[in-house]
């Protein structure tokens, strides 16, 4: 069974072609600058890298060009994919699972742009494009928020008037759910415990970051909220703020809603604190000579540390802590900063192993550590492909 996984952005389209018989990625890549001049597509197909300079007026042109490359390589001219899985950022209050896309599902995805104006319209565009190019092929929406629908009401409820929250759907939804689910399953396998009888804290740390408490296979709390802005500081996002900061900014800087949103989402976080970069690698490189860079790094580490501690309390213990995504997988300094302060949980890591770069799942904790600490490269695309197979293989 061949599954095409698509992740549509406003001017980009990521793709993965997965052979589900062996769960092997045959091709992956991205089309960028869609609707903009100097567009291009880059890919890795069966280990061979390629790039095509191509102006693409819309997502349909991009996907058609991607499929042309695939049909000249891994797919024959007459072979098609069996299903298409789409990453959708926000599923709102109603989608607690992946869904086969119907006109009603697509309509609701578009209406949920209220919560994710930068993401859901792009996802809907990607879905419509795939429906046009693959008529009759089942399409599946996999929601970033779905995994977190298992949170108890007390964990997702905001301290606002209850009727207002009900009317507007204001609650903690959480994001990166596909990643958290994947790495939690891998972590349980690594430590040799059934997922259904484990307490795992997953730290998805990248340009966007979130931490999740996974108790017996279910998300019971997560750091992102109504939007991906809540939680720890990120590349350009502020993370948690006293709401009074927002009213002060609006009053003193005369900011309206869009200007405030731009400040919080695009000019804050590591970039705003350090003044150096939104890229954690560049921030870490500047730490020795730049106090603000070190401060930005420490603010991020401290934020993760607090969530790990609070989630250990929320689950009344923890079996394993997992680091994943760009920063989580590639920053030994960040992992050391956090784990060195978790001695009260019995955490101990092997600094030599922690400092060794690898793309494989691995333990960085010592054999006598009371809590396992692992690094697991995430694979959201495989999880989306699995969901697409689960919902369509009987069709």
From TrEMBL:
<dbReference type="InterPro" id="IPR000890">
    <property type="entry name" value="Aliphatic_acid_kin_short-chain"/>
</dbReference>
<dbReference type="GO" id="GO:0005737">
    <property type="term" value="C:cytoplasm"/>
</dbReference>
<feature type="binding site">
    <location>
        <position position="7"/>
    </location>
    <ligand>
        <name>Mg(2+)</name>
    </ligand>
</feature>
<comment type="function">
    <text>Catalyzes the formation of acetyl phosphate from acetate and ATP. Can also catalyze the reverse reaction.</text>
</comment>
<keyword id="KW-0418">Kinase</keyword>
<dbReference type="GO" id="GO:0000287">
    <property type="term" value="F:magnesium ion binding"/>
</dbReference>
<dbReference type="GO" id="GO:0006083">
    <property type="term" value="P:acetate metabolic process"/>
</dbReference>
<keyword id="KW-0547">Nucleotide-binding</keyword>
<feature type="binding site">
    <location>
        <begin position="326"/>
        <end position="330"/>
    </location>
    <ligand>
        <name>ATP</name>
    </ligand>
</feature>
<dbReference type="Pfam" id="PF00871">
    <property type="entry name" value="Acetate_kinase"/>
</dbReference>
<keyword id="KW-0808">Transferase</keyword>
<feature type="active site" description="Proton donor/acceptor">
    <location>
        <position position="144"/>
    </location>
</feature>
<feature type="site" description="Transition state stabilizer">
    <location>
        <position position="176"/>
    </location>
</feature>
<feature type="binding site">
    <location>
        <position position="14"/>
    </location>
    <ligand>
        <name>ATP</name>
    </ligand>
</feature>
<keyword id="KW-0963">Cytoplasm</keyword>
<keyword id="KW-0479">Metal-binding</keyword>
<keyword id="KW-0067">ATP-binding</keyword>
<dbReference type="GO" id="GO:0005524">
    <property type="term" value="F:ATP binding"/>
</dbReference>
<feature type="binding site">
    <location>
        <begin position="204"/>
        <end position="208"/>
    </location>
    <ligand>
        <name>ATP</name>
    </ligand>
</feature>
<dbReference type="GO" id="GO:0006085">
    <property type="term" value="P:acetyl-CoA biosynthetic process"/>
</dbReference>
<comment type="subunit">
    <text>Homodimer.</text>
</comment>
<dbReference type="InterPro" id="IPR043129">
    <property type="entry name" value="ATPase_NBD"/>
</dbReference>
<protein>
    <recommendedName>
        <fullName>Acetate kinase</fullName>
        <ecNumber>2.7.2.1</ecNumber>
    </recommendedName>
</protein>
<comment type="similarity">
    <text>Belongs to the acetokinase family.</text>
</comment>
<feature type="binding site">
    <location>
        <position position="87"/>
    </location>
    <ligand>
        <name>substrate</name>
    </ligand>
</feature>
<feature type="site" description="Transition state stabilizer">
    <location>
        <position position="237"/>
    </location>
</feature>
<dbReference type="InterPro" id="IPR004372">
    <property type="entry name" value="Ac/propionate_kinase"/>
</dbReference>
<keyword id="KW-0460">Magnesium</keyword>
<feature type="binding site">
    <location>
        <position position="380"/>
    </location>
    <ligand>
        <name>Mg(2+)</name>
    </ligand>
</feature>
<comment type="pathway">
    <text>Metabolic intermediate biosynthesis; acetyl-CoA biosynthesis; acetyl-CoA from acetate: step 1/2.</text>
</comment>
<dbReference type="InterPro" id="IPR023865">
    <property type="entry name" value="Aliphatic_acid_kinase_CS"/>
</dbReference>
<feature type="binding site">
    <location>
        <begin position="279"/>
        <end position="281"/>
    </location>
    <ligand>
        <name>ATP</name>
    </ligand>
</feature>
<dbReference type="GO" id="GO:0008776">
    <property type="term" value="F:acetate kinase activity"/>
</dbReference>
């Amino acid at each position: 069974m061949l599954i095409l996984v698509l992740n549509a952005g406003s001017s980009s389209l990521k793709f993965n072609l997965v052979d589900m018989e062996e769960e092997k990625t045959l091709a992956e890549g991205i089309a960028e600058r869609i609707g903009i001049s100097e567009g291009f597509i880059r890919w890795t197909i069966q280990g061979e890298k390629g790039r095509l300079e191509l102006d693409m007026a819309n997502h349909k042109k991009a996907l058609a060009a991607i499929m042309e490359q695939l049909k000249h390589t891994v797919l024959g001219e007459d072979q098609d994919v069996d299903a298409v899985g789409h990453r959708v950022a926000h599923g709102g209050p109603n989608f607690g699972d992946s869904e086969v896309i119907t006109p009603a599902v697509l309509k609701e995805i578009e209406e949920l742009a209220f919560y994710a104006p930068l993401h859901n319209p792009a996802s809907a565009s990607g879905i419509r494009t795939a429906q046009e190019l693959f008529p009759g092929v089942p399409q599946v929406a996999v929601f970033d928020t779905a995994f977190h629908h298992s949170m108890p009401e007390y964990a997702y409820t905001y301290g606002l008037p209850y009727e207002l929250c009900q009317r507007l759907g204001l609650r903690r939804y959480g994001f990166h759910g596909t990643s958290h689910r994947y790495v939690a399953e891998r972590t349980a396998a690594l430590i040799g415990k059934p997922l259904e009888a484990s307490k795992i804290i997953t730290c998805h740390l990248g340009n966007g970051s979130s931490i999740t408490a996974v108790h017996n296979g279910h998300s019971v709390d997560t750091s992102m909220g109504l939007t991906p802005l809540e939680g720890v500081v990120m590349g350009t996002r502020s993370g948690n703020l006293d709401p009074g900061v927002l009213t002060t900014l609006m009053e003193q800087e005369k900011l309206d809603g869009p200007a405030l949103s731009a400040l919080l989402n695009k000019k804050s976080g590591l970039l705003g604190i350090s003044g150096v970069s939104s890229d954690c690698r560049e921030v870490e490189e500047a730490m020795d000579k730049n106090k603000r860079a070190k401060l930005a790094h420490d603010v991020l580490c401290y934020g993760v540390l607090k969530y790990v501690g609070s989630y250990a309390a929320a689950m009344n213990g923890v079996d394993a802590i997992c680091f994943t995504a760009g920063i989580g997988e590639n920053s030994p300094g960040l992992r050391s900063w956090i784990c060195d302060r978790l001695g009260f949980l019995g955490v101990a890591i092997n600094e030599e192993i922690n400092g060794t770069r690898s793309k494989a799942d691995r333990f960085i904790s010592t054999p006598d550590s009371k809590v396992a600490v692992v690094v697991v490269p995430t694979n959201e695309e495989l999880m989306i492909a699995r969901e697409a197979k689960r919902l369509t293989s009987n069709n």
